[in-house]
Amino acid sequence: MSTNVSAMNPLAMGGDAVPTKMWGIDSRFIAPILITLILLVGQLSFGILESYPQTLTAIGVCIVAEIILSYAVSGKFPHLASAYISGISAGILIRSPEFWPFALCAAVAICSKYVLRLEGRHLWNPTNFAVSFMLFAAPFSVASLSIQWGNNICAMMVIWLLGSVIIYRLKRFHITFTYVAAFIAFALIRSLWTGHSFLAEVAPITGPMYQLFIFFMITDPKTTVRHSKAAQIIVVLAIAGVEAILRLMENVHAPYYALFIVGPIANLIDIYWLSRKRTVSEAAA
Amino acid sequence: MNKFGRIFAVILFIALLSVPFWLRGSYSSPQVQVDSQAALDRYGFYFTEVANEIGVKFAHTSPRLDPKLDHIMPIIASMGAGVSVVDFDRDGWNDLYFTNSSEGSKNALYRNNGDGTFTDVAAPLGIADLNSRENGVSMGAVWGDFDNDGFEDLLVYKWGRTELYKNNGGQSFTRLEDTGFPAWANINTAIWLDFDRDGTLDVFLGGYFRESLDLWSLPDSKMMPESFEYARNGGRKYLLRGLGNGKFEDVTAAAGIESSRWALAAGSADFDGNGFPDIFIANDYAVSELFLNQDGKRFVAAGETSGVGFSPKSGMNASFGDVLNDGRLSIYVSNISEEGILLQGNNLWVPRQDKTGGLKYDNQANNFGVELGGWSWAAQFGDLNNDGTQDIFLTNGYISADKTANYWYDYSKVTVGHNAIIGDAANWPSMEGRSLAGFQQKRVWLNDGAGRFNDVALAIGVKETLDGRGVALVDLWNRGVLDVVVASQNGPALIYKNNSAPGKNWIAFELEGSESNRSAFGASVTLYWNGKRQRQDLTGGIGFCSQNQRRLHFGLGTSGSVEKAEIVWPSGKKTTIESPGVGQVHKIKEQ
């Protein structure tokens, strides 16, 4: 997650340009508004949060860490929308009875942005890195969000529709659409492979965790490849494919780990290609 | 880019990544098995498991329900191992009643022979053969003197027909017909209480599966909860007002207790201090519910306003204890905790008065150290080492089957699904002999008196990892200590005999109502000694499918005297006993 909204502008996005404004609102605020909406709908309807203080801890740590590290590394005051999204995502996606995992997850997410980078780009989606790390390293106190949206299909539809519209306007709907289609296709394959009902295999994508995953994590402009739309579609297919394999291995955290594995590999290849392309064009010039 | 800033970020990053590895050690259980003398020296007691030795050879078995559920039968037929304590023949020795659940299996009443041995007398007394396809199978039992004749009668709640047996002077039992209980319901919790304080016991029954379901003959497979957190398609609740003659009238709707959540445990006590017993319900797949009794006629739902009815979990236990020795009852609700997968955490609802004087609870389970107990079932409060504070014995474990394969992935996959998916058993992947939260270590949390509990289970001899369900605390040998009885699902009952170090005093009270119901359910005793005070309430069923001894047992530590005991009877009368003698059971009749 941690959509780096500062990158949501035509210059930063190369050929994958997105509008600087949507409905008269600065694009950088669209993602924070959407994720806040998801949080509020989820919490007020069903109480999806572990607790408000824990989520606020995650948001607070993210913002403080972003300010400190931005000053330390670049000497600039950062735009805080990205940190806000990271914090709110960490606050929703991890579950723990304690406070420290929320603080640590938030700090790791922000710190990873400043450390795990190459040629000015993140290799991992910061929140994906942090959540995966917490699930791997601290299972004694951390689990992932694993609840459903309850029985109110309206709340779910609102999020899906609004999320889709926003992602479409941000020109990233092809990523979300491809992933959902691939998930359903792989669910069918898994169903045939395991003999479990197709609905059981599809069930996870109806939960709120996936709504955050498909609207924020895999579409993060900073950590998706920039080569072309086709490349983005190939990458997201690879994520869904690796996730399907992990699911066949009965890994409970399959989507996080799939993105954790595929994301940096795709970014490294993307960086290499773009760098070669730049070298060739510079040589031609 | 600032080079030093980058170095700072790298160092910080590495430091952050190392944190979980530093903390990991503090989460692993430090306890090891120690010899009995070391346990006595360190904790003041240890347990010895003696069930076989004393003649309690009860083993629970599960039912075989509709074949449509065969692929997940261990998940569905996962309850029914209940235990309740009673002195059914009033000989001064506590006896034990165990419920069984497979069709044709026998419940057992182990009569305490007073010489350290027990004999199953359920069959000759007519309360053994209660489990059948036609009439349903037992989920638990609670004892209460509904006719105020001095002998505790037996209520067995079932997936099927709830049964009431009149105790004929401890010599035999008679099954009562036309009681007013539901003809068929899937009940998983029942308690005796006197909600209208008329001196006659009433009954609360909590349904789990909806009552229209005959689990042996399902119309289809759509019988699962519609949600893992927000399910309301469970069984209805029954508040049945006792008429004293073995008849009960259904006053549920009039009393305002309308809920179709999946109830697993209920308990009753006067939480708000208005003199009328309230009802707390721990629900599976949902939030807990608290119904505050207004005037003996009408209840008001106070789950959300009090704080206990928010953040849905998998409530499986409701028990009450004065954890801070401040005269207030906290409520302990058990839930599910599995490393890295599902960390609901148990809830310890500690009361506080808000500024408006309303009843509010805060979940202090984490601060008190009683949050993570595995797939937790029954938990009971009691002073296990007589040090003057209330400890917790918790049993756990869901399905112990194949140790090398577990069902967690498939379980977590389907439980996040929409109601159309989770609600249909046909969508649940087959278990195929796999375990789910099996082979778990029970918890024995000792209260240090300063707001912290420490798990000493292994160190004091509780090492069995059978799938526990019911837990009852009882002084089985009249020694002034609390022994522990655990009912295991698909396994043998366990009896932990308490071996206590000398030097700790105790006092106990056996109450008998006169204007109040004779069982004195709903009475509370607050004991004052050595600058401390502790409240205990007499309940007609508490925990998960469990009932403790009626005797209220207080540890006193090294204190050799008690200032006073204040008794509040269900009728509202109060009795104060000045300087009651220690080391004895005080039999108090309501005057």
Structural class of chain B: mainly beta
* Helical content of chain A (DSSP H or I, runs of 4+): 55-70%
Helix coverage percent of chain B: 10-25%
Shape of chain B: globular
Strand line-up of the largest beta sheet of chain A: 1-2
Describe the SSE topology.
The complex is a heterodimer of chains A (285) and B (591).
Chain A (H helix, E strand, L loop, with lengths): L20 E2 L2 E2 L3 H17 L5 H23 L6 H13 E2 L4 H16 L1 E2 L2 E2 L3 H12 L5 E2 L8 H17 L3 H22 L3 H5 L5 H10 L11 H20 L5 H31 L1
Antiparallel strand pairs in A: 1-2, 3-6, 4-5
Helix pairs in contact in A: 1-3, 1-6, 2-3, 2-4, 3-4, 3-5, 4-5, 5-11, 7-10, 10-11
Chain B lengths: L2 H25 L8 H8 L1 E5 L23 H4 L6 E4 L8 E4 L9 E5 L5 E3 L1 H4 L10 E9 L8 E8 L2 E5 L5 E3 L9 E9 L8 E6 L29 E6 L5 E3 L1 H4 L6 E8 L8 E7 L4 E5 L5 E3 L1 H4 L12 E3 L8 E4 L3 E2 L3 E2 L3 E7 L5 E5 L1 H4 L7 E7 L8 E6 L5 E5 L1 H8 L3 H4 L11 E2 L7 E5 L5 E3 L12 E7 L8 E6 L5 E7 L4 E8 L11 E6 L2 E6 L8 E2 L4 E6 L6 E5 L5 E5 L6 E5 L2
Parallel strand pairs in B: 2-36, 26-27, 33-40
Antiparallel strand pairs in B: 1-32, 2-3, 3-4, 4-5, 6-7, 7-8, 7-10, 8-9, 10-11, 11-12, 12-13, 14-15, 15-16, 16-17, 18-19, 19-22, 20-21, 22-23, 24-25, 25-28, 28-29, 30-31, 31-32, 33-37, 34-35, 34-38, 38-39
